[in-house]
Design brief:
Layout lengths: L7 H14 L3 E3 L3 H32 L1 H7 L3 H16 L5 H18 L3 E3 L3 H31 L10 H17 L3
Antiparallel strand pairs: 1-2
Helix pairs in contact: 1-2, 1-6, 2-4, 2-5, 5-6, 6-7
Length: 182
């Protein structure tokens, strides 16, 4: 599961709601600042990965002739180069470790900005944040399948990637999330 930038706010809201419902943390200034901090760190992570992906694409494009000559698998090559760049840049690809890092960043800023009060271990809170992200991902895959099916059931064809497809996808995604209470 890869969190999309347009879903970052939904994930951040889920994190804030789960933290509030866990009753181990109190928000000193309400839910909105907590959501904003979580969304900021999620978007930073997404943006960093997008920058790495763009760098990898540039490298592959620069070496297109050699790749074709060697008949290399572009997808496999992409992942090999991406792993190397991530290692050099300190970007974590492992989902659990990555979400743990994001949770740590969120929790640090919430604490430093005095937006929360808690009297349990940071580890427990970070685990709750990671759990919220993973739970969102579990439902995201199911919902995306339902949304794709819904769009494909239209009488006329709506091309994937078109503006209309994107608008419908986002609309139906939010509707399906609401149906599940997410």
């Amino acid at each position: 599961m890869k969190i999309r930038a347009n879903h970052a706010r939904l994930v951040a809201e889920r994190i804030a709601r789960d933290l509030l419902n866990s009753k181990v943390m109190k928000f000193t200034e309400g839910m909105d600042p907590v959501v904003a901090v979580a969304e900021k760190h999620i978007l930073e992570d997404i943006s960093w990965e997008a920058e790495i992906d763009a760098e990898v694409e540039d490298i592959i494009d620069e070496n297109e002739e050699a790749i074709e000559f060697q008949r290399a698998d572009r997808k496999q090559l992409f992942w090999m180069v991406k792993r190397k760049i991530c290692e050099e840049d300190g970007f974590v690809l492992d989902k659990d470790d990555r979400y743990s890092n994001v949770a740590h960043q969120i929790l640090d800023e919430l604490y430093e900005e005095d937006l929360v009060f808690f009297d349990v271990s940071e580890t427990r809170l970070k685990s709750q944040i990671v759990k919220s992200i993973l739970n969102f991902g579990k439902f995201q895959d199911e919902i995306e399948d339902r949304v794709r099916e819904k769009i494909s059931s239209y009488k006329r064809e709506i091309r994937k990637g078109s503006d209309e497809y994107t608008i419908l996808f986002d609309k139906f995604f939010i509707e399906e999330m609401g149906k599940l209470g997410l």
